[in-house]
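As a warm-up, study this chain.
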Amino acid sequence: MSVALLIVTHGEVGQALLDSAYAMLGGTVLKVGVVAVSNNSDPDEVASEVALGISRLNQGNGVLLLTDIYGATPSNVAMRFQNDEAKVMVASGINLPMLLRVLNYPDLSIDQLLEKALSGGRDGIFRCRREEL
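Now compare it with the structure written out below.
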């Protein structure tokens, strides 16, 4: 059994990131779900979807929730479920490097996977400069 992953984002951002990651990796052994939040979504309805996703995905080792914008509805709703005892943790600011890092380490504990997610997100951001010819 491994930690599961639930991606909670605005619109189709989460699914698009997951599709890109799957195309690059050829899939994953982690159980993964996506909750898409529209601009007019009721936060309580989103919470119901997140609760259902957590219950469907959790195999006993916890669920890591990745959201897009800290302080926005996906993040705020996800935070309702953060619970160390239930092994539900949340990280915000999902990007493709973060997601790839998570999917590449399916055997880690939820604490370790959260740290991989955070480092993947940070370490995947660079200022790009054109090399002089």
